[in-house]
Amino acid sequence: MTAENTHPAPASDPVEDLVTVIPAGGVGSRLWPLSQPHRPKFLLDLLGTGATLIQDTVARVAPLSTRVLVVTGERHADAVAAQVDVPRENLVTEPSPRDSMAAIALAAALIEERWGSQVMASFAADHLIPDAASFRAVVREAARVARDDKVVVIGIEPTEPSTAFGYIEMGGALSGDAREVAAFTEKPDAETAAAMLARGGYAWNAGMFVVRTDVLLGHLDRLQPTLAAGVREIAAAWDGPARAEVLARVWPTLTRIAIDHAIAEPVAAEGGVAVVPASFEWHDVGDFDSLAELSGTGADAVSIGRTAPVGAVAARGPLVVGGTKPVVVVGVDDAVVVESDEAILVTVRASAQRVKDAAHALEGA
Amino acid sequence: MTAENTHPAPASDPVEDLVTVIPAGGVGSRLWPLSQPHRPKFLLDLLGTGATLIQDTVARVAPLSTRVLVVTGERHADAVAAQVDVPRENLVTEPSPRDSMAAIALAAALIEERWGSQVMASFAADHLIPDAASFRAVVREAARVARDDKVVVIGIEPTEPSTAFGYIEMGGALSGDAREVAAFTEKPDAETAAAMLARGGYAWNAGMFVVRTDVLLGHLDRLQPTLAAGVREIAAAWDGPARAEVLARVWPTLTRIAIDHAIAEPVAAEGGVAVVPASFEWHDVGDFDSLAELSGTGADAVSIGRTAPVGAVAARGPLVVGGTKPVVVVGVDDAVVVESDEAILVTVRASAQRVKDAAHALEGA
To answer: Residues A197-220: what's their mean pLDDT?
Structure first.
């Protein structure tokens, strides 16, 4: 860590050339029935803290970044506007999902149109980072490295051989905390993950990156020229009367590709990606097993988003989410009982991944 | 079977000297949260057929018996009156529970007061007997035997070595289908139950008996003289102005004892008890495992008392009772999900016995 990072900046000390982009997409189908297409994960107060995930994300970056863009689907724009204090013109609404590269490239092009080249930082709307100050210190360091023409990813120090994330293979040292990215790897199997942790030099890819807009769009011009031209055309029209016409004409033609494949992997192969390692706690909270873990479910029952009591008979650590009636679990360890306005889910932590099929099972019932 | 029994009587062909007594007590705590002290099992439509257990019981005896008495707690009298078409004067309300002998002896004494000596048949209010015609044929046979001064129990042919019921050890043949009762045995352990089934000559004691009131009260005069005197005094005052005074004075003094211990066991030892074996299907439905069994829960989901769909993902045969929201069970075999107005229970069939502790678990939560 640099001296700057071991002495975190004051609570609010914005980085002047920084614009934060928050892509808010993804339903979170393993969190059904809390998350659903009309109410995706980022709109949920998943831990019952009083703040939704996107509110938490916006609050986390606010002291660092006076300008925040949220990129989300048109159908969620009103819900996002109701939840977070982002000017309506900074809500970038996609007519339809065209994968992450189109969303982020449009944001980058829009930033260039409005403010010229800036350092852009992108963070998913639905991740949890309890220690916001440490997070901001790492982003400051990443912004510093990004000014040197690098695509900078934040690499989370692995705490277990998770098979749920892609990994960043770290290479030689750069300035400060930064290191080169040797390669990105896909989500590994358990054996590979264990081997990587034993070998060391790997970080989790949390999808957080910091890059100058001109650097990002320059890579895009080379690697995905039609996509680059498309988002530049849309961005040029965005703040004027032609937005709807241009969007309707151009958006559907944009190449569907993830930023990992479009930029991160090929640019890393060219030596253009750096990683700033981070040791702060980070959670994707993709399913009820991780929610239970995060909520401290152990021997006792844990309730989220409810006030009625939960009882357990011969049942270790039930997690009960939502609902207004008392719940008793008898003889089922690690039970998860979730009630939304629409439905009730009963499962166990070990089956958390299968919850993605729950809505479909109901259609056939 | 006698010729009479193999040709069942017409649907309604009452036995002239028969009075049916239906003791309606017992919460059914393993069926929580459906059954609760204020809403005991006999008031529930447990199978979702449209009839509660006591309604089903009354309908089953109606073609056989023009006079039906229901003995129940004072707090349940209004609910019983609302459910079944029994004249209010035939609702025998107990000020407090004093075990089965007091309840049944009071009914017997009241029958004698009103109609002189009659054949009295007693059936619990919360058992299920799908084949009502076969049931009535057996009761006719039992009434015939009862006229010969016997206490007659109906013995259910065991279909498995159940440990949930007491057993009747059958002795020598009497007239018709009847046999002597050699002895009653308590609920056996699994090994003993298996041995009894292998040996043969045992029937389940379903608590159904038929006896002349003068025979029953005669045994009671000898074996429990103060109890006999007490119920005779109450019965004499029942249909007059002194009922409340006598009930308040005498009822609390009555010996608390089960009819099994007060009459059945000692009279059997004297050779005074007969058994009429019965092969009709009979269910106590004491817990959610037996309810699931009875509802035909197998690979597919079964719903009772609800219309919303039930889905299952990697989950064999869930039973979902009550509630208005769709329910999906993921990764839990044999799940039981029960919703009442007051609470939600989540368990599995193998833990059905532990449900009796559920309400208590909630008190501590």
So the answer is: 97
User: Which residues of chain A lie closer than 8 angstroms to B332, CB-CB?
Assistant: 332, 335, 346-348, 351
How far is it, in rounded angstroms, from Cα A29 to Cα A41?
A: 8
Q: B350–A337: do the CB atoms touch at under 8 Å? A: no
Q: Domain map of chain A by residue range?
A: 3-278, 288-364
CA dist B20 and B107 (Å) reads 10
How close A35 comes to chain B (CA, Å)? 14
| Interface residues on A facing B, Cβ-Cβ cutoff 8 A | 32-33, 301, 309-314, 318, 323, 325-332, 335, 337, 339, 342-348, 350-351, 354-355, 357-359, 361-365
DSSP secondary-structure letter at B262?
A: I
Packing angle between helix A225-238 and helix A243-250, nearest 10 degrees? 160
Residues A218, A219, A220, A222, CA torsion sign: positive
- Chain A residues with CB-CB distance to B362 below 8 A: 309, 311, 326, 328
Interchain contact, A357 vs B312, CB within 8 Å: no
Helix axis angle for A99-115 and A213-223, nearest 10°, is 130
Confidence of residue B5 (pLDDT cuts 50, 70, 90): very low
- CATH number given to A3-278: 3.90.550.10
Alpha helices in B20-163, H assignment, sequence order: 53-61, 77-83, 99-115, 132-146
Of the residues B29, B36, B313, the best mutation for testing chain A's interface (the one with the most A CB atoms within 10 Å of its CB) is B313
Q: What CA–CA distances, in Å, run from B280 to B63, B128, B138, B289?
A: 18, 11, 9, 21
What residues of chain B have any CB closer than 8 angstroms to a CB in chain A? 32-33, 301, 309-314, 318, 323, 325-332, 335, 337, 339, 342-348, 350-351, 354-355, 357-365
Instruction: Choose among A332, A345, A350: nearest Cβ to B328.
Output: A345
Instruction: Say how many C-beta atoms besides its own lie within 10 A of residue B210's C-beta.
Output: 29
Q: Do A332 and B332 touch (CB under 8 A)?
A: yes
pLDDT digits (tens, 9 = 90+) for A135-190: 999 999 999 999 999 999 999 999 999 988 999 999 999 999 999 999 999 999 99
Copy the structure tokens of residue B177: 């289908």
| Torsion angle in degrees (nearest 10) through CA of A27, A31, A33, A35 | -30
pTM (predicted TM-score): 0.87
């003068």: which residue's tokens? B214
**Average pLDDT of A265-284?**
96
B32 confidence band (pLDDT: 50, 70, 90) = very high
Find which of B319, B328, B342, B360 to mutate to test the A interface (most A CBs within 10 Å of its CB): B328
The token pair that represents B35 in the structure block: 């059954």
pLDDT in tens, A134-150: 999 999 999 999 999 99
| 3-state class (DSSP) for residue B326 | coil
